[in-house]
User: What shape does this take?
Amino acid sequence: MKKILIIGAGFLQSFMISKAQKMGYYTIAIDKNPNSIGFKYANEYGVVDIVDENACLQYALSKDIDGVITGATDYGVLSAAYVAQQMNLPGLDYEVAKVIKNKYLVRRTLYENKVDDISQYFEVNNLDMLNEVRDNIKFPVIVKPCDGSGSKATKRVDTFQELISACKEAIDSSLIGKALIEDFIKGKEYGVESFIYNGEVYVLGIMGKHMTSPPDYAELGHCLPSYLPIEEQVKEVVNKAIKSLGINYGAVNMDVLVTEDNRICIVDIGARMGGNLIGSHIIPMSTNTDYMGIIIQTATGGPLELTTQNEKINVVTRLLALSPGIVNVLPDFAKIKKDCQVELYHQLKVGNEIREYHNNLDGCGYIVSVSTDMQKAVNKAEKAKILIDEGIIRA
Ligand SMILES: Nc1ncnc2c1ncn2[C@@H]1O[C@H](COP(=O)(O)OP(=O)(O)O)[C@@H](O)[C@H]1O
Ligand SMILES: [Mg+2]
Assistant: This one.
């Protein structure tokens, strides 16, 4: 029985862990949180901080694993690449992983390789540096932590005054203490999921993204297919980005902005399967690609067996971005699920605080809706969300 190490054992990784187990692997999961929900699905688990690359390696060596994966989180990407490199297992090149983990280095690589034309980008690690760039900045810009995720501390900025506070927030929320300032791109947002194997890039899906209104830039849901008329051009840009960054292997998740005049700008790249149910639900349900299956199989030295159907099924997700308050009574989830014909996942319990939704961490769960008609899929998901929100009695 092959042994696979899954780095991260939260809710979104629990699907990978149970998938690997169903495929007949001996699954070992690690996470810093001793109460990780994913531990339930693993044959064995360890309480290990997944950003601590050496701790992950020592643990992996002690278990003599055959493969290592992470997914749906940026925190495990460097450790997975490091363990794979040190143990000579299939994985993303560690040096490439280091570049990808820094949005500034990614932005610079994309610009220098003419993947897109976002020419304004600065990296700052203290507020004094802003005086150096003060005279050169053309507003509006977006400010974000160089190693951020889940849209935390991401702000559009129109004045120098705002720039100071946005940079402070971004630097404070960055593990490496760095913020990226770059051109603000006005456009519609899409998510692109790809898999790279033996130098070949397979674009598995281009999703429409449903986002919060400014000043927040947080995900509220996805739809696949995107019905974007210029999907082929997006694929070309994605291919070029992957090649210029030297991504040699594995799953890649991107956020792409497409402007009114069809400029295609990649604003975020994660060298791992997408979160928010993209990898576990949206891609396989819509395209019939066994996404987690190919990640698991190739990570343990197996061949790539890719089957996708051309006819895509409409899949829509909504994050449970709910009205704030303390939960006193939960809604009748089973009834809502049945009435709206949707899948529901949530972590709500009586006594929980629902925070105002500003980033991914404020979400309380997910709705997944499927239909032969995209509008119907959207309507079912929206209706379920309203019923859940209205059904919660708050203290
Ligand atoms: N250059 C930009 N122009 C406009 N919006 C942006 C830009 N960069 C990021 N955003 C918005 O902010 C969101 C979060 O930024 P992103 O780089 O994807 O960070 P995270 O790693 O937190 O997902 C994006 O999904 C997008 O909506
Ligand atoms: Mg993003």
In short: The chain has four domains: 3-89, 119-183, 187-310, 316-394. The chain has a mean pLDDT of 97. The first strand starts at residue 3 and ends at 7. The pocket of magnesium ion (ligand 2) is lined by residues 255, 268 (CB under 6 Å).
